[in-house]
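fwd from M.: "can u put these together and see what the complex looks like"

so here's what she sent:
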Amino acid sequence: MSSASTEHNYINHEKGLWSWLTTLDHKRIGILYMITVMTFFAVGGIFALLVRAELFSVGPGILGTASNFNQAMTLHGALMIFMVVIPGIPAFMGNFILPLHIGAKDVAFPRLNLLSWYCLVVGACVSLVSLIYNGVDTGWTFYTPYSIHTDNGTTWVVLGAFIMGFSSILTGVNFIATTHKLRCKGMSFFRMPLFVWGLYSTAVLQVLATPVLAITLLLLIMERIVGVGIFDPKLGGDPILFQHFFWFYSHPAVYIMILPAMGIISEVITTFSRKTIFGYKAIAFSSIGIAVVSFFVWGHHLFVSGQSEVAAVIFSFLTMLVGVPTAIKTFNWVATLYKGSIQFQSPMLFALGFLFLFTIGGVTGIMLATIAVDVHFHDTYFVVAHFHYVMVGGVLMALMAGIFYWFPKMFGKMYNETGAAISFVLIFCGFNVTFFPQFILGAMGMPRRYFDYLEVYEPLNRVSTIGSGIIAAGFVVALIVIIKGLRSGEKAPANPWGGKTLEWETASPPIHENFVTEPEVTAGPYEYR
Amino acid sequence: MSTDSKVVNTHKHAHHFKDGQHEFQSSMLGVWLFLATEILMFGGLIVAYIIYNSMYPEVFAEGAKFLDWRLGATNTIVLLLSSWTMVMGVRSAQTNNNKLCVKYLLATIVFGAIFMGIKYYEYTHKFHLGLYPGELFSFTGGEASNLALYFSFYFCLTGMHGLHVIIGILLIIWVLLRAKKNEFNSEYYTPVEGVGLFWHLVDVIWIYLFPMLYLI
């Protein structure tokens, strides 16, 4: 089954919108997620541009009032976190690729899989109800006690995030069961592609961390509706407990976002270096290592919130410990490049961009884990820059690498390579122009989440805002490349990049049940040389 | 107790599984993972309870006096009995006896309803006294300075648990309707087993809540 001669595939297997909305095919659900995530990304991106435009100069700008700014900033954060980067790679890429990677016909629970997509959509709609009210201005973290007493819209966004949590949990349950039970003949754990290892560690985090967020958000809703007072100091509650609970989920959540991203990078780097990945087991185990340690680092968000000094020291140490498995991965990727036959096609460009940006994000993370430094940097733009280097420079770069890497497989068409490369250059340069100045602004002491700032910060803020325009242009170019590829791209062969993993052995796009006959694996996933 | 002799296996395993056994094992893994999420969710509440209990032991000591341990104990026994009938329901499904399965499931539902009835009585009694959670608390006789906090925990914990009992009852009704149609047999009893596991988890959580709220 080498060449793509078959006309029958998962896209034309059934016809009509209804067949998509009721589909149980993991590939179609993956595409549903793709459309959803891209839509939310566009909306969240517009809010980001508004925030940056407002900060272009001192004094009220395009958004007019501080209250509007707070709402735009909150919606940008909440949308991007709960509706873009969390479902982005696991639910969208993972759904499409996981069963193909392990030689299965589908995920273990196809109906739950569809339900999880509906949870995301319903949760998003519920969140948007908040716009009818006076919006939400808490920031995406919903810190108490402010979030208890602010406008009504908050209840809806919190409820929406609660519902979207089910989406995440169900995907996690599904992926763990799929990985354990549906591997094809000969696919032992150490023959699984590294993307599967990334998804598996992510799924463990989704299953174990999300329920804690669920109960926290539920308590916050009860707090707002009937005033139970568990987080409200006025009623004898403790707002710091909310922060502990919130970060017990939300710190592992950033690894929910980054672990599958690292998986994509492992795939792309080995394919475009034409070389067996360096240190397969080290990368696989470091995924699990990151997942385990990530549960014990949440306290680094509370260095100045009033937790005990002993706890702060322990959390600081554990946070630095995460740097070890992360560095192991990075060194292994670089070692894979060494003496490889590197091809600079667009997925590889994004992967190399990831290496550069994520390293900066990771190293500044270690700086922030140092208590004395964090006391100065806490709640400044330094943190904003660090976070965006990890999330945009890391997760989104990997997502773009993945989209361009698997685009031919997903749709059976090629895209315009030059266009994709231009989008990379714009996104990569624009990103650094936007966020590098924010490191300096943060070190100068500019606090985050403020509507206005002192005059000394103006020049760097202007640079940053100009950069945000360049990023936007980059993503618009990427969108045009994708749409043009979909409409008039050349027919893609089954294996355009010379990949060695199983998904390249079936047709592009794959048939309804993925493989004509159940594949049998006799060697590791990256047998190049 | 007549065993249904003409067992027809109507269930066909889904296309991506090798056989019924493979599907059963995968489904059970899924159920256990889901139970883990439930434990972590209640775990969050229980951690909060432990923290506040250690900060304000006198509030929790006084709050517990307003609960009747006899009602709590009765409910514990009711739920333990319901667990037994649930196990027997699963057992009858495994031995191709759908009729008996229906009876045991019905008994489980009745026990679940008794539990909720007693809870309803307890709740209305509390509301009558003004023992509401948090802000709404209007009882004036207590000695501890912040008795409302105890009732916040009482209502959150038992409310969450009660919600799970109701969901459990609905799930058992669903399984019961399928057992009525003779859908289960020794080859296929996945839904009964899965719902059973969920029901046992709900029981186990109550086993923890009862001493935490009524006895300590």
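replying to her w this: Chain A is about 65% helix and 0% strand.
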